[in-house]
Write a structure and sequence with these properties.
The protein is of the alpha+beta class. 29% of the residues lie in helices and 20% in strands.
Length: 148
């Protein structure tokens, strides 16, 4: 399992060795206060690793991936993705996509997002299936930091 400190070091190293991978568009970091407001407004608690990413890196293009924002005014707002799957709004929270219409999501249980990654497949009516990623940190490593 990847720890916060491991991930922080991996990101810092890649920013030094391959800074051009981080030149994509993205929002600035959000404050904890703003994140708390979005959680309260939408009745959901985000996973800690996702919150940390939003407060340190922001949302948008991140190396080889994209991370959605809880800010409804963002160009990467996760809330607009529910337009495609309104029936899933209470049980999954999309935080990224694969560029082909499928979403990477956190399962929601009793208003709390699990730090577990699942797929919502558009060809299957956004049916949820397991993913090859354990959690949000694993998503950052396998999708965003790994071009293969």
């Amino acid at each position: 399992m990847i720890t916060d400190s491991d991930l922080t070091m991996m990101i810092a190293e890649m920013k030094v060795t391959k800074p051009f991978h981080f030149e994509g568009e993205r929002d600035g970091p959000l404050s904890e206060i703003v994140i708390n407001q979005f959680e309260e407004q939408h009745g959901v608690r985000f996973p800690d690793a996702f919150r940390k990413h939003l407060t340190t890196e922001g949302a948008g293009d991140f190396a080889f991936g994209t991370v959605y924002s809880p800010d409804p005014t963002s160009g990467w707002s996760l809330w607009k993705e529910y337009e495609f799957m309104p029936h899933r709004r209470t049980d999954i929270l999309p935080f990224s996509d694969n560029g082909c219409g499928d979403y990477l999501c956190f399962p929601i249980v009793d208003g709390v997002c699990e730090d577990r990654v699942v797929w919502a497949d558009h060809e299957q009516g956004y049916q949820v299936t397991s993913s090859e990623m354990d959690d949000f940190r694993d998503f950052i490593v396998k999708t965003c930091l790994n071009p293969a």
